[in-house]
Amino acid sequence: MRSVITFFIAGLESPNSEFAHLETAQSRIAQLAIDPILLHKVATTKQDKASGAMEQPVKYALMEDVHALPQWDSTLDKFCIRIFIPEGSVLLQTNHVYTRNQWLYSIQWRRNLYRYRRIIELSSGRPEVLLKETKCLVEQVKCCPLQGDNLSLKAVLLISRLIEQIFAGNLPKTMLDPVIMCIAPLLDTVGTVTQVSPWLSMYCNDHPRSRLIDEVLSEVAQQTLKKTMDFGKYPTARIFVQDYLLAVSSQNNGVERIKNFVNSAHSLSSCCPHPRVLPNLVTVSLAAVHALYDQQQQQQNFSPKKSTENGGGDVVSLPPTPPYETPSLTFTDDEDRREKLRSEFEDWRVPLSVLLQPIPFPDEVLCEPAFARDFGNGVLRRLAADGRCEIHLSLLGARENKEGWFHLVCPGGPVCSDDGELFSSMLKTLLHCCCRRKKFLQTLNAMLGPLQLLALRENEPSMEALCHMLEFEVVEGQDLKVQMITALQSTPQGKKHYAQLCDRQIALRELQQKGGPRKLTLPSKSTDSDLAVLLSSGSFGNLEWLSLAFTNVTSSCADYLIKLPSLRYLNLWSTQFGDTGLQLLSEHLTKLQVLNLCETPVTDKGLSTLKSLRKLNLNSTQLSAKTFLVLKTELPALQEVDVRYTDAWCVEDALLT
């Protein structure tokens, strides 16, 4: 049933006088309950324009009083609100008590806003009145039955005008702290504090040791980090958080206070429930670093002017600016500490590594000794020690032929401050996890000098890297190979690594000698160790056909499979062979023609490099339709492919039809 609203108007007669019926309006009740600024807007049932007694709007400035009338007839659903104006009174009739209360509270709220706005404009010389009215307004917002961010936002906008007048000097500075204390409860309910952020930033800069920094603004800064979706749209909110952190760092035990702030923003749970906190913290830190060094560059590029004061000649005069080196290093240390704190949380390391992979720092920052020491030993060392591939792989370049943190911490790089210890830690993690591949080892050719130097200092990861480079034959030129062998044989530990390399090479030659079976099938339930024992028991230089179907082999067996140069058929049906092993096969078994990966956990990686493949079985895998189309173009010799029960199955059917 449609809700109907009827308007009545009465003069200054007695309450028993008759009411003149005006018009009937339908719908828009919810909108008017939230924002009934002009009461005549509801008169739009049959006419585009209000007419009669409601032709002119009833403004909030003219309302003297508003109250609800008791229901005079219990048998009728008639609920009214009386609005007193100078010319008489206006009655709003509804058929719902809930709608009547919505209208009543909304009109009262708008009248209070108008009244407070007038007080700000007319009572600039009476601070005690402004403080009293500000407290009353905040209490009304907290106790108002109406709901919605619009209530708090309107109040914040009005109170921000008061703060603006305080900073402009029109009101005494002693009002600033009480006003901020009053507005604090409202800032928690507002989506962003953009309207009041400039004044909060000025407060942090002018009063960095105020008690309100911890008592009030700490919670406001946390809410800003949690609720702001894009600091690009709200730069004033970002600047406020930046100034707040700077004010906290300038206090006693500033580092400990920042640590407590970050811990509180993360929450006590192992996983932060607020996904925007970390990106916003990184944005604030990077913006602060860029602003700092932009300012430094502007000061360095300042063009001195010639002074002719007192009849002097060409005397160069510079602006009286304080030394810049000390504050720059101090602030950079603070940013390093913040990044270090963020890297302590395991759930934040994955997104943090993604954000830091493009190296979003200016070159001047990377050359700072303090940055290289604190950021490298803190954040980068934690990322390097993490065993998750998505984290330590972010230390490499974001794309091919682009340097990453791994290259910058190399001895001689701009971020190397520990004689290669951090570089060795990264190298060890990468080699022992997922980068003991020819593609990665080829990139180490540009670091042969530092690797040989570290090998002479008996650095284990560097000696392992040199041995792998010799084993996979990624170094061109006999002279370079001799230098690498000489560096390995210069230390007892290096001799041990080189002896193990020679043993592996001898075993490889024996394995690849002509002879042995041409076809081989392992029993079901065989493991990686069973395959290793089998291949080390004789020569398999003639092995062309190998079936590991329904065994328990994993990607680890790829280290043994790549030693079979004549292999052309490989069956891995229903095994746990994954992407890591497939990528290794694609780099070494270039003669492979038939590959069965049915019911394996492989995805889209590593398939495009198998140029000689003729038959490929990807039945029941995670192959995507996009990768399937790419494979058809990048594998010219491919004659038969099985993509049943994959996302590419529908694409194949469409191509056939």
Task: Describe the fold and architecture.
The protein has 657 residues and is an alpha/beta fold. Among the domains are: 4-111, PH-domain like (Roll), CATH 2.30.29; 519-656, Ribonuclease Inhibitor (Leucine-rich repeat, LRR (right-handed beta-alpha superhelix)). It has 27 helices and 13 strands. The chain has helices at 29-34, 97-122, 127-143, 149-167, 176-187, 197-206, 212-227, 235-249, 254-266, 277-300, 325-343, 346-356, 363-366, 369-385, 389-392, 405-408, 421-433, 438-443, 448-456, 460-471, 478-488, 492-511, 528-535, 558-561, 579-588, 625-634, 649-656, and strands at residues 4-10, 20-26, 65-68, 79-85, 88-94, 305-307, 315-317, 519-521, 545-547, 569-571, 594-596, 615-617, 640-642. The protein is elongated and about 115 Å long.
At the first level of CATH, what is the class of the domain at 519-656? Alpha Beta
Low-confidence stretches: 1-47, 305-332
Rg, rounded, reads 37 Å
The name of the CATH architecture of the domain at 519-656 is Alpha-Beta Horseshoe
**Cα distance spanning the termini:** 55 Å
The amount of helix comes to 40-55%
Find the count of extended strands (DSSP E, 2+ residues). 13
Q: What kind of sheet is the major sheet?
A: 6 strands, parallel
Q: Count the helices. How many? A: 27
Percent strand equals 5-15%
- Overall pLDDT, averaged? 80
Q: Give the helix/strand class.
A: alpha/beta
User: Could you name the CATH homologous superfamily of the domain at 519-656?
Assistant: Ribonuclease Inhibitor
CATH fold descriptor of the domain at 519-656 = Leucine-rich repeat, LRR (right-handed beta-alpha superhelix)
Shape: elongated
Strand order within the widest beta sheet? 8-9-10-11-12-13
